[in-house]
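Q: Is it fine to ask for two folds in a single conversation?
A: Yes, each is treated on its own. Send the first.
Q: Here.
A: Result:
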Amino acid sequence: MSEDKYTAVWVSYSSITDFLTCPRLYYLKNIYRDPKTGHKIKIINPPLALGQAIHEVIEEISLLPKDERFNQPLMERLERVWKKISGRRGGFIDIESELKYKRRAELMINRIIKNPGPLKNLAVKINQETPYFWLSKEDNIILCGKIDWLEYLPDTDSVHIIDFKTSKNEESPDSLQLSIYYLLAVNCQRHPVSKASYWYLERSNEMVEKPLPNLKKSQEKILAMAKQIKLARQLERFKCSHKNGCSACQPFEKILRGEAEFVGIDELRSDIYVLDKTDEERKKASIIL
């Protein structure tokens, strides 16, 4: 089959995770477009907004030579980036809630300022806006994704994959993220990969090194999942396994039913919505002591 990236099925860590969680979720997040606007739909909430802001600051400095990364104070960068997700655009229900999350963001950025670690060292930047490679030319499938940081290790002429975590939760041992980033790093730049780490910015000054997965097995596993997605797209079969929808797809179904608040359009031309908790959910989330 000839290479045609415009007819290929593109898969990523997030889209594969969506499909494994719920095929209907995958459809609503990755294929569906609002017939009125022609845009994809997204849901924003405070944890997502927090992660978005931190990763945007990190991506900005990843584009700079190592001696220029801290010329502009990171807190100034955060302040500018935060304006994009302030208020309802970040899913914040009130100023107190936003200030709580902004304080968390400031603590994470301050941790980087005090412990820059690999961010002050040489780095490799893949020369693609969205790194991708042909996972299978025969099956017309492309794997894509952005790696947070590739530290260059001159002693071994290799790279160190670093993923920054803003969630309070540990990454699941079953997560495909590291396997996918490993495949991307191997196929989208010329230096061998010698190590990989997670950096939990919420709670630690140090990174947690993770063992590199088996490259061949990772590629086989991810290709098998990508083929499932391709088949579902061909058959247009994206059914939730729950009769009335699951907790993953139902929030997006609410958008289709007009039960969500439109708050804007993001830089990728996706329509952004907010889903507030119901009064009953708010009651269950707190108690009076």
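Q: Second one now.
A: Result:
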Amino acid sequence: MSVEKTIGGSGDESETRFDAAIRRFDEENARDPNSEIRNGVAEPRELVHAKRLTEWVLRLCPGASEELRLAARCQHLSRWTIPRSCYEMNRAGYLQWRTELKAFHARRSGEILRELGYSDETIARVQALNLKREFPKDPEGRVLEDALCLVFLEIQFADLASKTDEAKMIGVLQKSWKKMTPAGRGEALKLKYGEREQALLKKAQLNNIA
């Protein structure tokens, strides 16, 4: 784990390098023109997503390393700046969009971390987590993937299910379940789902997936 160096000011006005990184990531995501309701208040969508992802990472792994916490906060950094509509609306276009998004997130987060004085080693580790390198062998990568899947199931599942073909939605659920650890699956089973979502989960037969 990296040492959280104090930067600027003194006493109560001091700010650790980690705190500065989180603040910078949040400032970037606060520019998202799209909004989402969190605790009854409309907030920038990607800022909400980053906070929820961080919460899940810490719930799954209270002792998460600094690198893992940083990766969670910048996983979808400034995502709205590269919209899906800029690519062909087919699978090839989708895959190209996802590939370029991941590279963009990693590059932008690296720029911010470098400005704050993080080492090349730490930056490379954060980017490796963002890019899912060594997954599923990397234990921290698995925590991050669990958190991503849990945010999807908790927040995005119902909306996606309302506008997606049933067979395709079942496939999405099965693919997500395969990527999750037993601990992540256990948390997923504790979530509250609507009737439609419960029916889809049942049809996906997740209990039969190893």
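Q: Anything structural to flag on that second result?
A: Two points. The beta strands are 6-7, 15-16, 35-38, 41-44. The longest strand covers residues 35-38.
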